[in-house]
């Protein structure tokens, strides 16, 4: 069983309107945290988080842009300056702003992808970091 073997793609809260994209992203960041030699420099963005109106206004004033991908990995690999991933569920669809960001990043030397589901996200990360079938991408798992 993989470290994310218990991931089922649905909210742990059991709420009707859970946050499955959030759950995918949490599992994905756990996967990235276990990459070794060296550990990747990355950050998540706050897309998809419900904010109070005053907080949203402050973020916009400070430069936050609508549609920025969910995960940014600041590790150059091959021809790419970095990796950006927009996380979606299997049924999720990107917004026009998200599509614009993906196209803009790709035109600026990044590898930017819209990934549907955890397996698609992990496949992109593995490809980006050059993991071939059977390679060890991780250090010891907790």
Q: Your description of this structure?
A:
It is built from four helices and four strands. The chain is of the alpha+beta class. The longest helix is centred in the N-terminal third of the chain and has 14 residues. It is globular. The two termini are 14 Å apart.
CATH architecture: 3-Layer(aba) Sandwich
What's the average pLDDT?
84
pLDDT < 50 stretches: none
**Radius of gyration, rounded?**
16 Å
Number of helices: 4
Can you tell me the number of structural domains?
1
Helix content: 25-40%
The top-level CATH class is Alpha Beta
Largest sheet: 4 strands, mixed
Q: CATH topology, what is it called?
A: Trna Endonuclease, Chain: A, domain 1
Order of helices and strands: HEHEEHEH
Broad structural category:
alpha+beta
